[in-house]
Amino acid sequence: MQNLWEDAAAASCSGELERRVYSSRLLGRDKSLVLHGGGNTSVKITEKNILGEEERILYVKGSGWDLETIAAAGFAPVRLDHLKKLAQLPALPDPEMVNQLVTHQTRASAPVPSVEAILHAILPYPYVDHTHADAIVSITNTADGEARIREIYGDEMVVIPYVMPGFDLAKLCAERFVAEAGPRTIGMVLLNHGIFSFGQSAQESYQRMITLVGRAEEYLERNQAWEFAPAAAEVRRDLALAREQARLRADISGVAGFPVILVRHADARSLSFACRTDIAVIAQQGPATPDHVIRTKRLPMLGRDVAAYAEQYKTYFQTHEPQAKERKTMLDAAPRVVLDEEFGLCAVGRSAQDAAIVADIYDHTIGIIQRATALGGYRALPAKDIFDVEYWDLEQAKLRKGGKPPAFAGEVALVTGAASGIGKACVESLLARGAAVVALDLSGSVTAMKSGANFLGLQCDLTSEEQFKQALVKTAEKFGGLDMLVLNAGVFPGGCRIEALKTEEWQKVMRINLDANLMLMRECHPFLKLAPRGGRVVVIGSKNVPAPGPGAAAYSASKAALNQLARVAALEWGTDNIRINSLHPNAVFDTGLWTPEVLAARAKHYGLSVDEYKKNNVLKTEVTSRDVAELAAEMCGPLFAKTTGAWLPVDGGNDRVI
Questions:
Q1: For residues 286 and 379, is the Cβ–Cβ distance under 8 A?
Q2: Sign of dihedral through CA atoms 199, 201, 206, 207?
Q3: Beta strands 40-48; 484-487: pairing state
Q4: 644, 550 contact by CB (below 8 A)
Q5: How many CA atoms lie within 13 A of 254 on its CB side?
Q6: pLDDT tens sequence across 298-354
Q7: What proportions of the chain, in percent to the nearest 5, are helix, strand and coil?
Q8: Distances 93 to 227, 315, 320 between C-alpha atoms, Å
Q9: What would the DSSP string read from start to end of 562-579?
Q10: Does domain 7-222 bear CATH number 3.40.225.10?
Q11: pLDDT digits 0-9 by tens, 462-502
């Protein structure tokens, strides 16, 4: 544990709530303490209400906020006296508990308080910190976890057996705290769940958390259960395995009922864990803490038999659903974590961000399982306890807050010529619709074009078959497969009449505009064929296909040949549920080809102003890269689901085309 507290930073905080924000963020920065919305913190503050009366208010982390980035607005202010009265009730159903928390806030715009608000309220300390520290969970997820915790902490910690979060847990903690807490008590351990620390100040509560977890780490180290060097493992990164990953993604999407992102993690730690001889035992116990189940499911899938996993999940549901207080509707039966000897760890999500969260959680789970195993054996909670959390309405609400997924959620698009102009705009349009996007360009600037889990920029010379195959391998590893292909890359050489056209210039244009795209289509076909919603290809053609002009023989012929190729592909690939359509833009001036000087010169040549030249079409409108990109994205969507082999102009109306 690293103590990150800085006196100067804390001194700059104006008031208790700001200090609560500061220390909460320190906890959130350490992923061995909390992950992706996990953990809770609170502070009790005396405030005057509108009537001038003093009230004790519990500011507790609001649902949906992350400790690493939480702000003052992320804490829900709830009347403390009311929470303490609630704790004295014999029972309190979850819906009514949430109703009581929300209706006794002092700020209508505040987030929904944490379901552990009552627990924070009954602890007699101004500051309370709660984390799911890896070291603590590693120790408690063993057969003799309680004894080990008592050995480490003695009377400094109250130990609570596992109870599902909510009112029942708060009630039990209140009873046990009164019975067990003494003058040396500075924290509380919830078996199979996490750890609490408390104090009179933000600094005291935070530093106690660091000290307490640090002692657990030292205990693990003394028992040779801390660091584990991964075994050597051979990493495969080839096109054949990439296609197998796409097949796995298709199978998982089929069971899930929606497209998924499948991210492969082939690092030494993941591969070594997946290849353990005891993996069928240690990885099939359950999650490190129950709340992880809503992200990872109860168990990872071992190997690639998705149908068998789905049947096992249905059995799990049918076994435990009849025991639930209210009837439950089964969630999808698809895995969220895959452990495979060749793939390593694969994380599944409806978006690349979701898959990244799954991967983070399971990476920490690997460490917890390894440490608990070294202590004598990893033991998670029984399946029934995990089921109760997985199908707990309050936990499911966290996932439902995302609302309806975007149109291309879980789908993967590849765009060529993506660093500028129409290609760059296509990347933007596809990302805006929720797709994960792979952007290829000869320019190295493409690699830094965007950030985030849903973008991969690769420098790639499309005339090199080997480079593109490696790009496909990286696409599969990053996202699992391919659903949409936008063929945009191309060259437009300077004007040259046929009698002056050199063979090498002709061949160069054909190699880039035609031959490379043939290779791309051929190599992408096995992936597009596996797209859960069917593959889609959009060819960015040119007005020169239906209406060529003088001085552009190589360009016009290459684009015409590419579009004829697309029509043949539409005929051949229809039975593979792949559709191919072409867009023919004209006079798109916001691209790298059109500098202000070139634009001014061309306008002058036609006796027009620059603005008139930009709108020199039937509709007298300017066509932008975004206009083309938006239509390209729509052609990949449901509006064009029954269209293939089509040509569509995007030119404001060109009299020669018409």
A1: no
A2: negative
A3: unpaired
A4: no
A5: 14
A6: 999 999 999 999 999 999 999 999 998 888 999 999 999 999 999 999 999 999 999
A7: 45, 15, 40
A8: 43, 28, 20
A9: HHHHHHHHHHHHGGGTEE
A10: yes
A11: 999 999 999 999 999 999 999 999 999 999 887 789 999 99
Check residue 159 and give its pLDDT: 96
Q: Rounded to two decimals, what is the model's pTM?
A: 0.93
AA identity, residue 53: E
pLDDT value at position 399?
A: 59
To which CATH superfamily is domain 239-394 assigned?
A: Class II aldolase/adducin N-terminal domain (3.40.225.10)
Q: Are 224 and 374 in contact (CB under 8 A)?
A: yes
Candidates 500, 492, 491, 394; CA nearest to 166 is 394
Q: Which residues pair with 414 in a beta bridge?
A: 438, 485
> What whole-number distance in Å separates Cα of residue 366 and Cα of residue 188?
25
CB 472 within 8 A of CB 523: yes
286/192 Cα distance (integer angstroms): 11
The residue ranges of every structural domain in the chain are 7-222, 239-394, 412-588+624-650, 592-622
- How many of the other CB atoms lie within 10 Å of CB of 497? 10
Asked if 225 and 375 touch (Cβ cutoff 8 Å), the reply is yes
Contact at 8 Å (CB) between 472 and 524? yes
- CA-CA distance, 288 to 161, in Å (whole number)? 15
**β-strand partners of 242:** none
Q: Are 222 and 261 in contact (CB under 8 A)?
A: no
Determine the residue type at 648: L
Residues 6 or more apart whose CB falls under 8 angstroms from that of 278 comprise 373
For residue 522, the tally of other CB atoms under 10 A from its CB is: 11
Residue 145's nearest CA partner among 378, 350, 366 is 378
- In sign, the C-alpha dihedral spanning 251, 253, 259, 264 is negative
Q: Give the CA angle between residues 77, 80, 86 to the nearest 5°.
A: 115
Average pLDDT of the segment spanning 162-168: 91
Residue 387, classed as helix, strand or coil, is: helix
Strands 337-340 and 301-302: parallel
Rounded to 5 degrees, φ, ψ at 578 are: -115, 130
Cα distance between residue 187 and residue 206, in whole Å? 11
Same fold, 7-222 and 412-588+624-650: no
DSSP line for 96-111: HHHHHHHHTBS-TTSP
- The one-letter code for the residue type at 361 is I
What is the fold of 412-588+624-650?
Rossmann fold (3.40.50)
